[in-house]
UniProtKB/TrEMBL annotation, chain B:
It catalyses: N(2)-formyl-N(1)-(5-phospho-beta-D-ribosyl)glycinamide + L-glutamine + ATP + H2O = 2-formamido-N(1)-(5-O-phospho-beta-D-ribosyl)acetamidine + L-glutamate + ADP + phosphate + H(+). It is found in: Cytoplasm. The gene is purS. The keyword Transmembrane helix does not apply. Its main location: cytoplasm. Belongs to the PurS family. It comes from Prochlorococcus marinus str. MIT 9302. NCBIfam families: phosphoribosylformylglycinamidine synthase subunit PurS, PRK05974.1. Part of the phosphoribosylformylglycinamidine synthase complex involved in the purines biosynthetic pathway. Catalyzes the ATP-dependent conversion of formylglycinamide ribonucleotide (FGAR) and glutamine to yield formylglycinamidine ribonucleotide (FGAM) and glutamate. The FGAM synthase complex is composed of three subunits. PurQ produces an ammonia molecule by converting glutamine to glutamate. PurL transfers the ammonia molecule to FGAR to form FGAM in an ATP-dependent manner. SUPFAM superfamilies: PurS-like. This is Phosphoribosylformylglycinamidine synthase subunit PurS.
Length: 221, 84
């Protein structure tokens, strides 16, 4: 872990990049490096976080413009090599827009921007992103989004279910997501996208530590 | 080179709930408009583009629609094209 470095991607409009870096460095003693979106050199990072925010002002659709950045173009090789990528909130939206994860994230059913703590069921342990030794474990994480309603067609949902790709489900669906989905992984398990913010739940003084394990698991091989 | 004016319409697929459309429908009814059965909100994108003939321009617009203007997981698109 000494030299392990997590790249935290910064797009114009990212606003959780510093939170992620603070949580990794301050709470977990994991080294981070900011990666400007125009960089395509990922050679000196071992894992990548796409943080929350409003990349490119959410113009056209959330994540739609970010998808064409040099960094996202370089991400394909990074993911294929088995290295871990975590997309939080806007990062999840970017991962679906760019095809790393299936489905799409669209306006909340009630049109509200929802900023709240939510209870989540850990559904799958694929990729080791969650510390769910129990069959059904619940964690509490903050959400803050206007476009967090996960949508996919029935064939995709079946594929998600059959391959145990659904990582997290809302206990009380706040945004109208299909099948209460809050987070999914790719088939290999090295890419996780989720709407809740684990980096905002890494210290008891700010309300909880249920996000620690997910950030810590970035260093898993 | 020919120049074309293209109007691209991007709509949420019929199977996708449109809460903004529903809210606008509700406001329309409060305004006193009667008989509204459905109201859905989409986007219209205007593009002026050059190319060697209509077929080449259509190829370019198809690519733009499929890869950028619309997310085909949730949206459908169509466009009209006028030679300037």
């Amino acid at each position: 872990m000494d030299n392990f470095t997590v790249g935290v991607v910064v797009f114009p409009g990212s606003n959780c990049d510093r939170d992620v870096s603070w949580a990794l460095e301050g709470c977990l003693d994991i080294r981070t490096k900011y990666l400007w979106h125009e960089s395509s050199d990922l050679s000196d990072v071992d894992a990548i976080v796409l943080p929350g925010g409003f990349s490119y002002g959410d113009y056209l659709r959330c994540g739609a413009i970010a998808r064409f950045s040099p960094l996202i173009n370089a991400l394909d090789e990074f993911v294929k090599s088995g290295k871990r990528v975590l997309g939080i909130c806007n990062g999840f939206q970017i991962l679906t827009e760019s095809g790393f994860l299936p489905g799409a994230l669209i306006a909340n059913k009630n049109l509200n921007f929802i900023c709240d703590d939510v209870e989540l069921d850990i559904v799958s342990s694929k990729g080791g992103w969650f510390n769910n030794v129990d069959e059904k474990q619940t964690i509490k994480l903050p959400i803050a989004h206007g476009e967090g309603r996960y949508h996919c067609d029935s064939d995709t949902l079946k594929k998600l279910l059959d391959n145990e790709l659904i990582a997290l489900r809302y206990k009380n669906n706040p945004n109208g997501s299909s099948f209460d989905i809050a987070g999914i992984t790719n088939e290999k398990g090295n890419v996780l996208g989720l709407m809740p913010h684990p980096e905002r739940a890494c210290d008891e003084t700010i309300g909880g530590t249920d996000g620690l394990h997910t950030l810590k698991s970035l260093i898993l091989k | 080179m020919d120049q074309f004016a293209v109007k691209v319409f991007v709509r949420l697929r019929p199977s996708v709930l449109d809460p903004a459309g529903e809210a606008t429908k509700s406001a329309s009814i409060k305004l006193g408009a009667e008989g509204i059965k459905s109201l859905r909100i989409g986007k219209m994108i205007e593009v002026k583009i050059e190319g060697n003939g209509e077929n080449e321009v259509r190829e370019k617009i198809d690519l733009l629609c499929d890869r950028l203007f619309a997310n085909t997981v949730i949206e459908d698109y169509e466009y009209s094209l006028e030679k300037l």
